Every structure is written in structure tokens, then in C-alpha cells.
Amino acid sequence: MPVTPVQYSLKPPKSKSKYNGNGSDNTVYSVETLIRAMLKKHHTPLMIIRRSILEKQYKRFRKHLPDVTPFYAIKANSHPKIIKTFIKFGSGFDVASGAEMKRVLELGAAPSKIIFANTIKTPEDITFARRHKVKLMTFDNEPELYKIAKYYPGAHVLVRIKVANIGSIVELSLKFGVDPDQAFFLLRKAKALGLSPVGVSFHVGSQSTNVENYLQALEISAGILKEAKEKGLQLKIVDIGGGFPIQHFDNEIGVNFERMASQIRRVIKTLFDKNIKFIAEPGRFLVGPAGILVTQVIGRTFRNNKNYYYLNDGVYADFSGMIFDHCRYEFKTLRRGQKFLSALAGPTCDSFDTLSDNCEIAELYVGDSVYVKNIGAYSCASATAGFNGFPPAKIVMV
Ligand SMILES: Cc1ncc(COP(=O)(O)O)c(C=O)c1O
Fold this sequence. Notes:
The chain is an alpha/beta fold. The chain has 2 domains: 28-49 and 289-383, Lyase, Ornithine Decarboxylase, Chain A, domain 1, CATH 2.40.37.10; 51-288, TIM Barrel (Alpha-Beta Barrel), CATH 3.20.20.10. The chain has helices at residues 28-41, 51-64, 80-89, 98-106, 123-131, 142-151, 180-192, 211-230, 257-271, 284-287, 321-324, 380-383, and strands spanning 46-49, 68-73, 92-95, 114-116, 136-139, 156-160, 196-201, 237-239, 277-280, 291-303, 306-311, 331-333, 339-345, 354-362, 369-372. The strands form 2 sheets. It has an 8-stranded parallel barrel, surrounded by 6 helices. Strands 1, 10, 11, 12, 13, 14 and 15 form a 7-stranded mixed beta sheet that branches. Helix 2 packs across helix 3, helix 7 (180-192) packs across helix 8 (211-230) and helix 8 runs parallel beside helix 9 (257-271). The radius of gyration is 23 Å and the shape is elongated. The protein binds pyridoxal-5'-phosphate. Pyridoxal-5'-phosphate (PLP) binds at residues 73, 75-76, 94, 117, 172, 203, 206, 241-244, 281-285, 377.
């Protein structure tokens, strides 16, 4: 049974902080000293992105999938410093709109390292891609092919197929992907329309811990490549999408990128010709573990037999991932001591803006920090107007 907390203690105990590291260490001590140091310089809410972790994740991806070129999906977090960091590492980029394309180009990404990976594109955005020589794009339906052929003759196209998203936290095959048995027909159609059909793409759903999704999708892709070759169409690229999972909780089990990658590697070696190029569109995997969100308690009360803490960030802002990304987070504090069953809520007037009803957390005081690790993806990104680069309506008063 959780212990009923003492209500309204007057003075919080003092805490010490000293930060000497660069944020690369993920131990509790190092994370907390980093947070304490940052709080001396910055207000909350504060999203700390650790460059060292971006590098660690990028290197992990490259090491375990050496034959798969990553195109960072900037929808996960399009902060310019993050994009610049990945440009330095040599990454490619997956963009979902003309606005995202503009952003990566302005920051210095080469057009040849960009894939326009939204199967539904506006004529303006396709024209923008043509003007900036961003040739590679995905599609999954015939009308889209006519559109691409009209606005970007000769574009290089990958057909996105519908694949199993079993067990993935965010389902991405409901809205996108053609049935695999239609893929060759569409690729042939692309050629007839003057486009250059170059391959196949898929997405197994975001936060996919089920490697079978990838293995099955690769097998289906190999079948499409084989059929195309037999019928005189030599495809060159397989885009294995994003979906690579991360740990959101310290003691989470069932997330093992290294093991998944070794199975993917094996299937790639067995099923495909050596000359096939593999690319991927990881978002969450590259940026999620780098983010630490630090919030502050702005109010507290005792309600429903538990402590209620109101934080200065909620589901309408950096915790938006709890809604759109179906994400659950581990809430931590800098306070030690006995933990009590508590509720955490965001600052807005809406009761829906509740972050946790049953969090075991030390007693907190107004001004105390509550932080969450592994929150660098789809948090601040979906909180801002213009997720994926699509702006909300302009307001006109008449
Ligand atoms: C087309 C496409 N590529 C890549 C991604 C990134 O996926 P993840 O963050 O799971 O790696 C997404 C996510 O929605 C997507 O829709």
C-alpha cells in the first residue's frame, strides 16, 4: 500500500549540485548533475538535447546496420541544431513536406541526401523538390504518380507497400502503403509515365519491438524486386523505413535494437543481391534517448488521497507525445526519500491535461523539478504548430 504523504510541509530540504561531465553518461548521478547545472542557467520547462547521445545513437545504428544508410526523419525533432549535428555525422534526411525540405536544405543538407518520404505530396511541394533537385520520393497510389509525373518528370520513385505493424506503438500502415501485389503494377506505371522507378519502401510502425515486422516486410520486398527483375525492371533501392524502438523506462524489457539489427542484417544478406542499396528513415531511435525534459512544480494539493502536483508543462506542449505518440514516460525528481502515490498534471485548465494518476514519487514542493528522460522524439515536435512542416490555418477576421 502506498503511504499517505504528509501534507504541506513548509520547507523543502536543501540539495547540492556539481556538474563536471558533458552529458554523455546516462547514470542517474550524471543526468541529475547535468540537470542541476542547466537549471542554474535556464528556466523551465527545458528540453535538454545531449549531442553526445545523438552521436552515440547514430554510431549504434551505423555499427549494427552497416549496409543501411540512415536518413534521419526530421519529423521526430526538427530543431536546427539537431539537423546540423546529423549533417556533420553524414546522415541523410527524410522529409515529409516542402517546409521540412526547405529547412534541411537551408541548413546545408545535400539534395542527394534527402528523401521526400510522404506518399501524398502537394503539387507545390513536388515543384519545390524539382527546383532543388531532391529527386527521391515515395508514393503508394496511381493518382499520386500522375501528379509526380506532371510536376517532376523523371523523379526517382519508391513504391511504399503496406506491411504488418503488429505490436508497434504507432500504427503507420492504416493510412499508407499499397497492397504488395499491386506494387509492380505501380512501378511499371511509373516508368510508363516517364518517372524512374527505383525501388520499394515500407514502415513497420513506430516503436516496433517486433522484429518479425521487418523480416516479413523484407521478404515481401525481395519478392517484388525479383518479380520486377524477371519482367525487365531492375530496382536498386529498398527503404526499410523507421520504427526502431528505444527504451522509455529505465527497467523496460523487450527493447533490443542490437538483436533486431542482427536479424535484419542476416535477412538482407540472404534475400537480396549485393548491388541493392538499403536506406532507412529512423526518427525516434536517433533523437529520443538524447532528450531530457525538465519541468517544475507550480502548485500542489492533496486530493483523492494522494498528492497532486501541477507542472509547468503538459499534454498541450512537450508531453503531447502522450496523445499523438501514445507514449508513456517515467517521471523522476531530484528529491530523495520516501515515495508516495501521486498525480501529476499539466498547467492548463483542462482535466484531460493529466500526466499520471499513479506515480510513485518523493514528496515535492513548489519550485521542485520533475524530469523525464528519453523524450527527445515526438514531444516538442508535435507540440508546435506545424508538425511535419504542415502549418495550421491562418486566422482571418472578417
Ligand atoms: C514515412 C515515415 N518515415 C519515418 C518515420 C520515423 O519513424 P520512427 O520515428 O518510428 O523511426 C515516420 C514516422 O511517422 C514516417 O511516417
